[in-house]
Amino acid sequence: MKQSTVAKNVVKGFLAFFIAIFIVTFAIAVPILFRPYYSWNIKLLDIEEESGYTYDEIKVAFNELMDYMTDITGKKEFSTGSMAFSESGKSHFEDCKKLFMLDFIALGVSAVYIAAVTVLVKTGKLDLRYKKRSPAFWGVVGLGAFVGVVGVWAAIDFDGFFETFHHIAFPGKTNWVFNPWEDEIINILPTEVWMSFGILIVAIVAVFVAVILATEKGRRRKYGETEQRQKS
Questions:
Q1: How far apart are CA 21 and CA 28, in angstroms?
Q2: pLDDT digits (tens, 9 = 90+) for 87-127
Q3: Gap between the Cα atoms of 89 and 68, Å rounded
Q4: 170 DSSP assignment
C-alpha cells in the first residue's frame, strides 16, 4: 500500500511537471509556427520603413529563415532570402534551430505523458483521485510564479534579460551579436519583435493558468458540495 501511494505520488509529481512543460513549450511554439503573427508585426512596428526593405522582401527572408529553423528533416538549406548573411550569423541560427527542436521534443514528450496518464485514469487502470489540489494546479502555480518573475524582469529591463538569456542559452558564444551590414536579417528582427513574441508567450501561458485555476476552483467547490451532502 505504501509503495502504491509512493508510486501514485511520483506519477502526480511528473504530471504536474509535464503539464507545466507542455504549457510553456506550446506557448513558445505558437510564435515559431504561426507565421501571420510576424506579418502583423511588420506593419505594427513599421519594419518596412525602419529597415528599408519592402514587405515582400521581409516576408520572404523571414519565411525562408523559419523554414530552415523548423525543418525536422535537416534537408532545408539555410537562407535569408535576398539578404546577406555571414558564417557567424548562420552558425547562430544553427544553434537556435537546436533550441527549436528541443522545444518541439519537450512539447511532444509532455503531450504523450499527459495523454497516457489521462487514458490510464479514464480506463480505470490508474487511480489518481485526490481530495485537495490537483497536479494541474501545482503545475500552473509553479509555472505561473516562474513566468511572472521572468515577465517582470523583462518588463523592467528587457535588454538585460535578453542578454542574460543569450548567455545562458548559448554559453561561451558571441555570434548572437550581429553586424547589421553582414547579417541583414537582424534589420527585420528588431528588439520590439522579440518583445512582441515574449508578450504573446506570456499571454498564452496566462490563459492556460487562468483556465486551469478556474477549473480547479470549480472542482473544489463541487467536491465540497458532495462532502456536505454525504455528511447530511
A1: 11
A2: 999 999 999 999 999 999 999 999 999 999 999 988 888 77
A3: 14
A4: S
Burial 2-24 (b: 16+ CB within 10 A, else e): eeeeeeeeebbeebbbbbbbbbb
Per-residue three-class SS string for 79-90: CCCCCCCCHHHH
Residues 6 or more apart in contact with residue 224 via CB below 8 angstroms:
none
- Return the C-alpha cell found at 72: 525536422
DSSP 8-class letter at 200: H
Half-sphere exposure of 221 (CA within 13 A, CB side): 6
Q: Which amino acid is at 21?
A: I
> Over the stretch 64-94, which tens digit does the pLDDT of each residue have?
999 999 999 988 999 999 999 999 999 999 9
Rounded Cα distance, 12 and 228, in Å? 27
Per-residue DSSP letters for 89-136?
HHHHHHHHHHHHHHHHHHHHHHHHHHHHHHHHHHTTSS----SS--HH
- pLDDT score for 225: 47
What's the grid cell of residue 128?
Answer: 489518481
One-letter amino acid for residue 192 of the chain: E
Please name the amino acid found at residue 49.
Answer: E
